[in-house]
User: What shape does this take?
Amino acid sequence: RYDVCALGETLIDFTTYGESDQGNTVFEACPGGAPCNVLTMLTKLGRDTAFIGKVGKDQFGKTLIETIKKVGVETKGIVEDEKVNTTLAFVHTFPDGDRDFSFYRNPGADMMLTSEEVDFDLIKDSKVFHFGTLSMTSEPVYGATMEALKVAKENNVLISFDPNLRPPLWDTLERAKEMMELGFAQCDILKISDNEIQFVTGVEDYDEGIRIIREKYNIPLVFLTMGKDGSRAYYKDIRVEMPGYKVETIETTGAGDTFTACGIGGVLEHGIENLNKENLAEIIDFANAAAACTTTRKGAILSMPDIEEVEALRNKSRQ
Ligand code: ATP
Assistant: This one.
């Protein structure tokens, strides 16, 4: 019934919104959380999606459920925690575009999802299961993620993984690396960023880093994102690179997730076994354009572009 099911965090990203009259920093409460962002973009591409996760029984949790429902993602897999509040993340963007995350997650509701609360039918009924490492930082959500992966594997559901490394959330970076590697060992589709591949392999050269993990973990399809410089795709012995789009970027939250969604969308359209140089180039070019559109607005879930906007950007840059 579903094209893609994702499990993990949904949270409020507070992005800076200038200053108040008194000179205090103002924040905008943007619904987000990587797996949910990915599903939102997939719905924009016309895909049926379902989310599994946990929010607090508070106003932010209500807002998240309403927003996710409104964008067209199935929300019946979302559970409310009676005691723990919805997870919050404050995102400070610096003039050079770099971001600093402060998480309010000690714990946050997303971490409290238990295996018993997971609606495994949503996974069984999907073509692709997507996850990241935020649902691997601690129990009980770690156990829920492991069970979900098991169900996905048993039911021949394609597995998609985006580590989304957030160093402050880990007790040690060694543990973060171990969990990234656990994800590599499970996935069929990997989306990884330039910083993450350098972090996990310790190798400067991206191609070499990707070669090392593909060889070690036998990952069929890898997408590498390189911020404004665009992206690469690796499949069998094919390597494709497409440049990024020049846009008026104001905030990059959700860009990687928009890209991931377009990558998964491309796999669903062609079938993973039918990927070739031409369709991969088309997939990552569309994904670059879509992700660039997301950087022109704040936040993630409500800043995803529709297909028309993406095609308009592609047409404009072809002229
Ligand atoms: P995030 O953590 O914000 O989701 P990420 O680190 O996973 O992002 P990036 O490599 O920063 O991923 O960005 C993903 C894609 O978004 C890039 O491959 C590119 O296509 C697009 N993108 C990112 N930043 C810009 C930018 N400043 N201008 C144009 N496109 C961008």
In short: Residues 97, 193, 225-228, 230-231, 244-245, 247, 249, 252-257, 259, 288, 291-292, 295 surround adenosine-5'-triphosphate (CB under 6 Å).
